[in-house]
Write a structure and sequence with these properties.
Blueprint: H1 20-28, H2 39-55, E1 57-58, H3 63-68, H4 81-100, E2 112-122, E3 125-136, E4 143-154, E5 159-170, H5 180-186, E6 202-209, E7 224-228, H6 232-243, H7 254-273, H8 304-312, H9 320-336, H10 354-361
Antiparallel strand pairs: 1-2, 2-3, 3-4, 4-5, 5-6, 6-7
Helix pairs in contact: 1-2, 4-7, 6-7
Length: 374
Amino acid sequence: MPANSANSTGPSAAKTDLQGLELAEDHFGPLLHPTRATQRAWTNYSVNRLETNQKYRTVIVSGEDSEEDSEEDEYGYGDEPDDVWLSNSIKACVSQLEEEMDLEAGTLLKCITILYDSTELDEEEPRSTESNVRIYSPTTPMYIDVHFKYHCRARMSEIEWFYSLGYKIQRRPPATAGDVCAIDKELGQGGLPDVHTHNGWQSICWGYYDDSNGNYGKNWRRVELGQIELYEEGVMDVHETLFGDLEKPATTDPEAMLAYRRSLVRGIRLLLAAVGLSYEVACTDDEIDVEPDRLMLEGLSDRWVGRGIRNACGIRLTRDAEKERKGAQQRREEAKGYNNGYDDSEDDEHDGSEDDESSDQEEGEDEEMDDDGF
C-alpha cells in the first residue's frame, strides 16, 4: 500500500521513525498549507488519524482496501443502498465544495472518516439516518466531529419530521483511535435542543414538527419548531480549525470582505457536507439559497437555515429582514391551521408540499428565517 495513501492504516502504519509534520505529510500529504505546530501535536494527530482510519472507514478507500472489503467490512457495511447512501452523499457534497474552492479532487474527501452510520431508506429517500463523522483538518493538527440525527416519514394524515445537527472541535487530538461509543455518551439525552449542548459540543441547527396539543391525525398541521445556533466566533473557530487563520480585511475593501465571509460560509458548509447535506448559501442579493435535495432542514418554505448560516458569518442580505417576517407569519398561520392543505395520502412526500414547490419555482422569494429560532 502506498505510504501516502489517504487510508494507509496497516498494523505498522503508526510505527515509524518519522515524527511530527513529516509523519503527517508521509501518510496524508500533500497537506493544504500546513500550519506551524509542535512536533508532538502533529505526531498525535497522525497516530490518531491512522488508527481511527484502521478502526472505522474512510470515504476514499484505497484500491487494496477496496478489494479486501468489497463485500462487507467488520462493521457490517456492504454494498446495499442503505450502507452506501452516506458515503455516496458525502462524496457528492464534498466534491462540489472542492470544485468551488479550486482544490484538487480528493483534497477534502480524504480527510473524512465515518465513525458511525445507520441509514434506513424509503426507496431512494432517507427515512431515518444517524451518523458520526470525523473531519481531519488538512491544514492543522486538529479535527472536528460532526453528529447528525434525522427522521422524516409521511403517514396517512401527518408527517413525522425531526433532526438535530452539531459539531465538536478537538484541538489536541490524543495519540489513540477514535471511539464512537465515547462520543455517543457525550451527547445530550434530552429533547432535540439539548443534544449538542454538553461536553464541548456546539449545535448548528435543529427542527421538528410539533405534535403536542392534539396536533395529530386529521387535525394535523405543520407546526414547525427549530433554531439555528451558530454565531460569528464559532464559525471563525471552525474555519481556523479546518483551514488555518483567516485574516479579516479592512471594511473599506468590500470585495475582499465578501471573499472572507464566503470562506467562513464554506467552513460551515463543509460540516454539513460531511454528513451528506449539500446546502448552497446565498452570499449576495443575486444568489439564492438551495436547500438539500433529499433531506429536509426546514419544515416550511422559509429557508431559515441558509439565512442563519450567512448571518452568523456576517452577511445580511437586503431581503433577509422581509423573509424573516414572512417566515414568522407563515409559521403563525400554520399553527392556527390557516394553510393546512395536506391531504390524507401517504403518497404526499415532504418535498412535494405546496410550499416547497413554490420555493423551487421562486427560490429567491422563499428562502430563510431568524437567528433566534421560533
